[in-house]
Write a structure and sequence with these properties.
- The chain has one domain: UDP-N-acetylmuramoyl-L-alanine:D-glutamate ligase (3-Layer(aba) Sandwich).
- The chain contains eight helices and seven strands.
- Helices cover 38% and strands 14% of the residues.
- Strand 3 and strand 4 form a beta hairpin.
- It is globular.
- It has 199 residues and is α/β, with parallel strands linked by helices.
- Strands 4-3-2-5-1-6-7 form a seven-stranded mixed beta sheet.
């Protein structure tokens, strides 16, 4: 079995938008959050090293005996790489099951309106139900990223550098500010390569 229905659905969505609707993802999540069993997430933000940090942490937790999910992007060879559960990429059957469930939870108009990354993020949340730990990597920025809608256990901040400047700002200070605004409770800040000057 392959995830034909999901692929067909996602292929209709553009990967990028010229403008981002900051209210769309929170509204969609609020519609379904009481119907999914998702623990507070470990949120990873930054520019460099998010993927390796997330996978290292996921493997460490798994070896400690916990059930763990890791959401990352983009994928390299197959979409399933984005949703890693207990040491393996999600299989096609479980992916289709999560897609079917999400389609039932979301009104069709909302489901259709979500971006590729927004829908994929909610798909991962469905797939990660009931796990001990969930690691979510931000795709773009921090405070307005699709992954920022979830309750957070802690935020991990990898090195921040210039990225997505058309959305995040043209200075390290602007980029760092919007990323750091994603912190909800506690954070661990990795060693940074750039200094932020006052002013």
């Amino acid at each position: 079995m392959n995830s034909e229905k999901l692929n067909e659905f996602l292929n209709k969505k553009p990967l990028f938008y010229k403008e981002i609707d900051l209210k769309r993802m929170p509204k969609a999540f609020n519609l379904i959050k009481n119907n999914i069993n998702l623990k507070p997430v470990i949120h990873i933000i930054g520019t460099n090293g998010k993927g390796s940090t997330g996978r290292f942490l996921a493997h460490t937790l798994l070896k400690k005996g916990y059930s763990v999910g890791h959401y990352t992007s983009p994928h390299i060879l197959k979409f399933n790489e984005r949703i890693w559960i207990n040491g393996k990429d999600i299989d096609d059957e479980d992916l289709e099951t999560a897609h079917s469930r999400l389609q039932k939870l979301l009104p069709e108009k909302v489901s259709e309106s979500l971006s590729y990354f927004e829908y994929t993020t909610l798909l991962a949340a469905i797939a990660f139900e009931g796990l001990d730990f969930v690691i979510m990597e931000a795709g773009l920025g921090g405070e307005f990223d699709a992954t920022a809608v979830f309750d957070k256990k802690i935020t991990l901040i990898t090195p921040i550098d210039y990225d997505h400047q058309n959305f995040l700002g043209n200075s390290i200070k602007e980029i760092a500010t919007t990323k750091l605004n994603a912190i909800e409770k506690e954070a661990i800040i990795g060693k940074q390569i750039n200094k932020i000057e006052n002013g």
